[in-house]
Amino acid sequence: MRPDTPADHIAEAERLLRTAEQYPEDAEPLLLQAAAHLELAGERGRASTLYDRLLSSERPEQPENPQLVKALQAANLWEYGHEAEARALINGIRTAAPTEAAPWEIIAETLEHHDELEASHDCFTAALSTLLADGDEDVPYATRSLLSGRHRVRRLLGLPHDAWDSTADRVHTAHTPDVTLDELHDPNRLWALGSDNPAELKAEIARLRSELGSYRSALSRPFPVAVLHWPEAELTELLEAYPALSSEYPSHAAHLSDIETSLRDLSATGTENLGIVTATVPSYEAFAASEQSSPANTDLLPQYATTLAARGRATSWPPAKGAPCWCGSGTAYRGCHGVEHLS
User: Fold this and answer.
1) Domain total for the chain?
2) Alpha carbons 13 and 246: distance in angstroms, whole number
């Protein structure tokens, strides 16, 4: 049942906390989900404790994305009445300049929510400067909301369109052609909601329907469409234990090439929100056992990838500007598997 009341959210948070104890390898995304439910229930103090728990230096494993946890903590603390702490976290995130979109979006929207429009605009701009290369035609899925958010704040500030606003318009029009981004971000829309003019109300309903369609599209896929990646040592161990999978993975180099090709093909057909999940042999064997099947069954591989993505284990593809390649080579993506992608 979908949580609707504070009690429902608390019950869901408790369930997630129990699950995190059972599956410590997936504790981070489960604790983040639990914290979100606690925030929705008004239990911001408990949510803050979970964020601190994830960031604790005494924790055996540090979070995979500490800047994301800090951003969520900052947003929560500001609502919780701890503005100074929130600002300190936000400043630290900006200094760290993360290569993922989510931390930037959270802190920029937090500033916007508290009427810090100039600071929000600066934050959105810094994010795009960090994550997008000049002349990029293909805007990564995770970065589009930054373009839209910056466009919205610039409309509130009364600033003229610039190149990134034009890119935001292009991306928006490709997916929602009926209502322009300027209309959606018109500061006067709030006044229209209280109008007695049927024409104005009808126009506003059309805009809201357009926005709802975008939200439904995003929510219809809460986790990325993910492709499975076996690091070389893991693939060697897998094939030694299950030689029948050699037809699926003739070599590690071919496996890496197939990953990039598959993702490009999915992107070319219009599939958005793509990602990569990293496999391990013990995890895969445990998954096969849970499905009462043999790990040699190739039909399990895409199911395993989807399960890892649902647990929050996916890394967005393509990597952000300057980020290392997903293959683990240590080379920047644009100088590794992204070379052909950019040609």
Assistant:
1) 2
2) 42
**Cis status of the peptide bond prior to 66, with omega within 30 of 0:** no
With CA atoms as reference, report the closest residue to 327 among 229, 219, 208. 229
3-class secondary structure per residue, 297-338: CCCHHHHHHHHHHHCCCCEEECCCCCCECCCCCCCEHHHCCH
**Shared-domain flag, residues 161 and 235:** no
Tens of pLDDT, residue by residue over 127-184, are: 999 988 765 667 888 888 899 999 999 998 999 999 999 999 888 876 666 677 887 7
Q: What is the distance between the alpha carbons of residues 202 and 192, in angstroms, rounded to a whole number?
A: 10
Residue pair 107/94 in contact (Cβ under 8 Å)? The answer is yes
Location of structure tokens 């369609």: 213
d(CA 324, CA 336): 9
**Is residue 330 within 8 Å of 319, Cβ to Cβ?**
no
| pTM as predicted | 0.70
Q: 161 vs 123, 173, 230, 337, CA distance in Å? A: 17, 16, 44, 34
For residue 19, the domain's CATH number is: 1.25.40.10
Q: Which residue has the tokens 């909601």?
A: 193
Does one domain contain both 110 and 230? no
Q: Which domain holds residue 322?
A: 225-342
